[in-house]
Amino acid sequence: TENESQNWARRCWQRMMHALDLTPWLMADVSEDEFGHYFFEKDGQWTARRIFRHFVWNPVETEFSSLQQFVWACGIGVFWGCFTALWKYVIESCVDFVWVDLPGFLKEVGLFTELDGSFPLPLYMVLCPTIFGAILSYIFAALPQKIPGQNEWITNLHKQGIQEYETFWTLLVLATAGMASGLSLGPELPLVLTAGMFGSWIAKTTQQTLLSSRIMNITAASAAVGGFFG
Questions:
Q1: In the chain, at which end, N or C, are there fewer CB atoms within 10 A of the end residue's CB?
Q2: Who contacts 201 (Cβ-Cβ below 8 Å, separation ≥6)?
Q3: Model's pTM, two decimal places?
Q4: GO cellular component terms (predicted)?
Q5: pLDDT tens profile 212-228
């Protein structure tokens, strides 16, 4: 059933995140004071653990410092620069297929004709968005967990700093299909939403406060838009 599939996907995601969790490795050399508070020694050799805690994330002092935010911003920028370049290539390939290759093939097999024929090829421009629109509208309406829009992203950004990211892959696939079929005017909103979900995932995983979560959310969203159009 649908609920069983969702539970299976959630369990797989949890297992993967548990396998990738670096907290036990980072806490291997932790110390504890007389009051039960954990801390790391400030002196000593710069090991891989200490470098990671200093520049990336400290599991004892989870709130990002200015240096850590800068490092994360650089990493997010590089990642989304590469990701959006790949996504742009996929979108352009899908557009070429839907609007160049497919109608040309349908004309070759005789489904469409020239302008003076019984079923002229320009009708494809009407039929394609209509069919895609019907299918995608049904999928959007039937989704058990609704995909957030611009207003929800702005509201969540101000209220809690993060945007729930469970619909990341669904949004990515449907946005790509919508742009390929001619239903969307541009990728700006999908870019902001998907990247904002990614930044929110980082903030939630590293236990950031509202302010730092908001920074990660906006940083990822701006990196995606800049990477796509830059």
A1: N
A2: 165, 168
A3: 0.87
A4: membrane
A5: 999 999 999 999 999 88
